Amino acid sequence: MTMPRDDRACSRETLAGIAHQAMVDRGLDPDFGPAVQQQLATIQAPAQEDGASLRDLRERLWCSIDNDDSRDLDQLTVAEDLGGGHVRLLVAVADVDALVKKGTPIDEHAQHNTTSVYTAGGIFPMLPETLCTDLTSLNEGEDRIAVVIAMTVAADGAVEQGEVYRARVHNRAQLAYEAVGAWLEGGPAPPKIGKVAGLGDNLKLQDRTADRMRERRHDNGALDLETIEARPVFAEGRIVDLHEERRNNARMLIEDCMIGANGVTARFLAARGMASLRRIVRSPERWDRIEKIAEDLGERLPPDPDAKALEEFLVRRRRADPLRFPDLSLAIVKAMGAGEYVVESPGGPAIGHFGLAVRDYAHSTAPNRRFPDLIAHRLLKSALVGAPPAYTREELESLARHCTEQEDAANKVERQLRKSAAACLLSSRIGEHFEGIVTGAGPKGTWVRVLHPPVEGKLVHGAEGADVGDKVRVKLVGVDVDRGFIDFVRTRQ
Q1: Which of 190, 220, 280, 292 holds its CA 20 to 30 A away from the CA of 58?
Q2: What does the longest C-alpha to C-alpha distance in the chain come to?
Q3: Residue 409 is inside which H or E element, if any?
Q4: CA 46 from chain center: how many Å?
Q5: In a 3-state reduction of DSSP, which class is residue 272?
Q6: How far apart are CA 311 and CA 221, in angstroms?
Q7: Nearest to 399, CA basis, from 128, 116, 112
Q8: Does 196 or 335 have the greater pLDDT score?
Q9: Residue 151 parent element (H or E)
Q10: How far is CA 455 from CA 16, 109, 218, 438, 493, in A?
Q11: pLDDT in tens, 11-39
């Protein structure tokens, strides 16, 4: 059993130290070295270019939608009604390569980590903050050079045409998921929307178009999963709560725009004879485990992996038991297995993304935060000027393995810090009672999810007879912030 921890140690600084060590332990570099700092000192302004190939789209109603505290803005969106049910959807993505060239110290640091790491102890950005939050970020009120991914969406949600080009863009409004989501669901409009003529109508057009794209994917078997994401809330440097983030229309709008854009990127490169880095989720090898999950709930799935049948099962379970649906979603995610990066060549077999029900998928919409997206942009720019690919097949094969490994390491760091933040929050509440749900029961132990705050801990006493889905009352008996352990005992009070 873990021991209670002194509440005075539970601060942002404490979590920052745990996060820094976790990065090092997982083979990630939490700091930018002297060579990076020297190169950074030579970059004083956003990229400036001229040329007939660079389109001027600054007059469009571009806007960004992200978390309310996001400063590394990777993409903007805008839509155009073409009539007849067709809509042209444009996604502008920060052209990081315009300032960060292949093989430079900043690029080598980004290639080592391959991703920004977001933890309760702070953000460890893939690129120096001066770049990712300013010079390469698509900030409100600033002109920037971007890679634009354009797609024509039909009335049935199908992406019929796609093209890629570079352009100058201007972000008219930096918006946040929560405020835009509430507005799309009937709440008041965020003030910034009202200040830009036509922006509200354009966002609603984007929302309707994204809805059609999503419906089509779900018809093809895309999985509608809902896991719990809780972000720490700090006051005066101390963690005071965990805020549970829920999907809303604004988040889904951006998700669907990005899925569409990533598909256009993959097909654009393939059409020009280029191998590319694809993000895949294979058909589940542990389909038998998913079958067993369904069987335990009184349902039956086909003997072979079937995304459409699985999605229909998930829809029924969400309606029947919304409280436990996040736990079911997490069990399905674990049984499906992690995503990975692979190299695919034009005309070769396409593995696709099982969860999204798409065949062509190449990460390309977050180059400030993910290295695979920067790779994609360099390949796109090679294709646009008819140059040899920026990366050889051998380089791509090596990078695919490395990016998969480092993303897995980053996920483990983030997961560890979520647990440490939860333990930190509860360190002053030893002895309190909570209502919870059993989320796991097996040889390694029994686990309980507390409803508020949304945290999970181990049932160290009273687990006899407890099964997944049972509602239980538990008492908090100990935490270990460094390791992220939370211990409960079952009570009858």
Answers
A1: 190
A2: 74
A3: helix 393-426
A4: 26
A5: coil
A6: 6
A7: 112
A8: 196
A9: strand 143-153
A10: 20, 34, 30, 12, 20
A11: 889 999 999 999 999 999 999 999 999 99
- Other beta carbons within 10 Å of 322: 10
DSSP H or E run through 317: helix 307-320
Cβ atoms < 10 Å from Cβ of 392: 11
Single out the residue of 364, 344, 370 nearest to residue 277, CA to CA. Answer: 344
Q: Comparing C-alpha atoms, which of 352, 359, 395 is closest to residue 375?
A: 395
Q: Supply the DSSP string of 447-462, one letter for each residue.
A: EEEETTTTEEEEEEE-
Residue 320 has phi, psi (to 5 degrees) of -75, -35
For the chain, the C-alpha Rg in angstroms (whole number) is 23
Q: How many CB atoms lie under 10 A from the CB of residue 429?
A: 14
- Per the document, the length of the chain is 493
Per residue in 61-91, pLDDT tens? 999 999 988 899 999 999 999 999 999 999 9
CB-CB contact of 112 with 412 (8 Å): no
Q: What is the pLDDT of residues 379-418, one digit of tens each?
A: 999 999 999 999 999 999 999 999 999 999 999 999 999 9
Nearest CA to 97 out of 380, 402, 395 is that of 380
| 3-state SS class at 148 | strand
Identify which of 147, 132, 136 has the alpha carbon closest to the alpha carbon of residue 57.
147
Reported as half-sphere exposure (CB side, CA atoms, 13 A), residue 225 has a value of 20
Spatial separation of the C-alpha atoms in residues 376 and 392, rounded to whole Å: 13
Q: Are 374 and 367 in contact (CB under 8 A)?
A: yes
Tell me how crowded residue 197 is: count the other CB atoms within 10 A of its CB. Answer: 9
Dig out the tokens for 472 from the structure. 């239980």
Residue 493 and residue 197: Cα distance in Å, rounded? 58
As a whole number of angstroms, the distance between CA 127 and CA 125 comes to 5
- CB crowding 456-482: b at 16 or more within 10 Å, else e: bbbbbebbeebebbeebebbbbbbbbb
If 0-12 CB within 10 Å is exposed, 13-18 middle and 19+ buried, where does residue 452 land?
exposed
Helix (H) or strand (E) holding 473: strand 471-480
Tokens of 39: 């190169």
* Residue 378 token pair: 């360099």
Amino acid at 308: K
**Pairing, β 485-491 against β 455-461:** parallel
The answer for residues whose C-beta is within 8 angstroms of residue 165's C-beta and 6 or more apart is 53, 55, 147, 148, 150, 384
* Cross-strand bridge partners of residue 91: 77, 149
Q: In what order do the strands lie in the sheet with 143-153?
A: 54-56, 159-170, 143-153, 86-94, 75-83
